[in-house]
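Usage example:
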Amino acid sequence: MIKTVLVALLLLLTMASPFVGSVTLDPATLFDAGTVGHQIFFELRLPRLILAFFSGALLALSGWLFQTLFRNGLMTPYTLGISGGAVLGTGIATVLGLNTLIIGISLSAFFGFGGALSSVALLLWLSRYLPDKEGNSLLLLGIALSFFFSAALMVLFAVASAMQSHAILLYTMGSLATMGYTEAAAVAVSSLVLGLFLYLKRFELAILGVNEEHAKLKGINTKRLTATLLLLSSLVIGIAISVTGPIGFVGLITPHMVRKLYRRANHRLILPVALFGGLFLAACDTISRLPQLQSELPIGIVTAFIGGPFFIYLIIKGKS
Amino acid sequence: MISVKELSCGYDKSVLEAVSFSCSENLSILGANGVGKSTLAKALCGLLPHQGEIIINGRPLEEYTAGERARAITYIPPKLASFDAFITVEEFILMGRYPHKTALSGYTDEDRERVGALLKETGLPPKHAITALSSGQQQLLLIAQALIQESRIILFDEPTANLDPKHARDFYRALKKMPQQTQKVVITHDLHFARALGYPVLFLHEAYVRLYEEPQHFFTPDNLSLCYGVAFRPDAESPEVQYD
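Running the assembly step on the lines above writes:
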């Protein structure tokens, strides 16, 4: 019952997404190529919906992956500081004025990926010295890295011009605003590649979901699997974050929500996690642009308003 | 066949120092707490870095690929611990076939049929979550998974530690029904259980390791007192479980 209501609500908000915003669209003129409504719908709102859906799917899948790899319900690229690394990388590209395109991809995306990858490398290197790799020590390490990256971002603010600072500030709030389909397609492809790879590795991830020792005893090279998946996820997270900025809570709450709704083995949740993540972010984007609001709310604020209370609920109730 | 020469391993500091033994039969491993019984078992399965030589079925452990190693030797922990709370009994047992499947293929119909047969034999509920099972059922589940994995050597770490006498007896019977060609190694503190098994005994002590090929020589009160450093009453008449 709860699942049906939730899916219906998310679908309704998602489908309403292209029709919600500061300009009210007339459905009758949507397919008239010369009209403003047509342009807004096909050049702004539809790509935005695609970007929102696939960003949500990617973030949710990344969260699911990190929780599975480290067997801790609080692990996400966000809580482990990987998003922070990607934000810092993209921020550095902004300050250096690197907005050129290389093989159709913005240079800042490469910096985002570099930041994500560097933070993964740093996290893995430091984790070798942790006494308890599977417990909360890794999480605390990730939180410490997040603080470090935030501080480094503050340094960027100090050295950036007023315009660059403003751009970085807006970027750190997260935004799904886009024009045309290039960025949406990049994130969609990234999300599909991640989803496909996770599906191909579902047997290994199922066994790893029990515990690492169990996976090793079944003949899985857990180090290689973890390194491969972290590398791939760093790449796609870097690409997504360079486009949308950091968007919190989607990666954390979606896997928990799906686990509670479906109550089935972790490896059988890949598709539901992707779909719920996509629908959740698209629905949050619709809420952020409700006409009753004076101006559009940054998407990170909406996800945090919904995700924050849920996160507190999780802490109080313990991991799902 | 397990052969160990000058094996040293541990966690932050070495628990086992220069241990050597060789055994091609079933084996019980006994010893005081913290002496390194589980450490030895984990090292034998390649779960811990080590120094010295481990030969499994005539081949150095380092020469095995991860998959080959899983087909050669496996380890059953004292308790099932799973992050994923919703894996079903059926799914968990099927994971035992992973070392036998090819890279991108799924599990075969034959794999599923074998799981079905094991489920019938054990009476385990196929669709129940593994975390919802009792300790006895979880032990049975771990054995079922190990059986379907078909490793030539299976190491059981304190299998009866969480079991009541009836479940301990059921485990004993399950162990006795396992294929003859599978080498079974049982780590235990339960002297009655180890004696009932009748396997040769490897006794680990902080200062030495001794293999008793004739287990009855180990279970004398004098020898037990010497091994464990506590007195054993020769006239004790405590009731014992009838395992057979």
